[in-house]
Amino acid sequence: EAQVTQNPRYLITVTGKKLTVTCSQNMNHEYMSWYRQDPGLGLRQIYYSMNVEVTDKGDVPEGYKVSRKEKRNFPLILESPSPNQTSLYFCASSFQAGTGSEAFFGQGTRLTVV
Amino acid sequence: LAKTTQPISMDSYEGQEVNITCSHNNIATNDYITWYQQFPSQGPRFIIQGYKTKVTNEVASLFIPADRKSSTLSLPRVSLSDTAVYYCLVGDLVGSGTYKYIFGTGTRLKVLA
């Protein structure tokens, strides 16, 4: 089954404790991205990757890091989480960049930073 | 920078046709317009996509005028299960051939019995 898998689904952590949210897709997609979703603000892109070893900042990259060492995986790293990073996070992938390609989203990761 | 504008919310009754319009004045020449549906605590799901004129699939129609500065998602005969947030998506080709997706804040559709 074609899918994007995020882990964990839920996470509560303390300020400053480094964490990683994993994202994996099994569709051999080139384009992957991370979004955060907050009430009233819709979906905002954090980082995206056009292909292996190619990443770039989205609209809200501060406080986040990503890596793309393999095509299927695109982890999101919070080196020193803060309470304002409490949010619902989604990973997405598509065959290629450009909106002519359908994006597939993961189930979401609800992160709470206390 | 491409940006989308949609109504924040809409109410409808079961069995009615619902039309949601999205404004995207700065859409790029080669860009498509894509609509997604999102239920609470789930990832967005693809509904329909188009470049110009009209596109129809088994769940919706998409109308795009010639200037492509707006688009209208049409949901025929909605049911309670269509209650969700609907996002219009365009992209933005930034320097060096990289590409960003631009989601709006979405339209919250509530279908009433």
How does this model look, in words?
The complex is a heterodimer of chains A (114) and B (113). Chain A has 114 residues and is mostly beta strands. Chain A has no helices and eleven strands. In chain A, the strands form two sheets. In chain A, strands 2, 4, 5, 6, 9, 10 and 11 form a seven-stranded mixed β-sheet that branches. In chain A, strands 1-3-8-7 form a four-stranded antiparallel β-sheet, with no helix packed on it. In chain A, a hairpin with a 2-residue loop joins strand 5 and strand 6. Chain A is globular. Chain B has 113 residues and is mostly beta strands. Chain B contains no helices and ten strands. Chain B has strands at 9-13, 18-23, 33-38, 45-50, 53-56, 61-64, 70-75, 84-93, 99-103, 107-112. In chain B, the strands form two sheets. In chain B, strands 1, 3, 4, 8, 9 and 10 form a six-stranded mixed β-sheet that branches. The N and C termini of chain B lie far apart (40 Å). The mean pLDDT of chain B is 89. Classes of the chains: A mainly beta (114), B mainly beta (113). The A-B interface holds A 4, 31, 33, 35, 40-45, 48, 50, 56, 58-59, 88, 90, 92, 97-100, 102-108, 110 and B 30-34, 36, 41-46, 49, 51, 87, 89-91, 97-106.
Radius of gyration of chain B: 14 Å
Using a beta-carbon cutoff below 8 angstroms, give the protein chain pair with the largest interface and the number of residues from each chain. A-B, 30 and 28 residues
Assembly category: heterodimer
Q: What is the arithmetic mean of pLDDT of chain B?
A: 89
Q: In angstroms, what is the radius of gyration of chain A?
A: 13 Å
Tell me the span between the first and last alpha carbons of chain B.
Answer: 40 Å
* Proportion of residues in extended strands of chain B: over 45%
Which class do the helix and strand fractions of chain A yield?
A: mainly beta
Beta-strand content bin of chain A: over 45%
Sum up the overall morphology of chain B in one term.
globular
The helix/strand order of chain B is EEEEEEEEEE
Number of strands of chain A: 11
DSSP helical segment count of chain A? 0
Counting helices, strands and paired strands, the structural category of chain B is: mainly beta
Tally the helices of chain B: 0
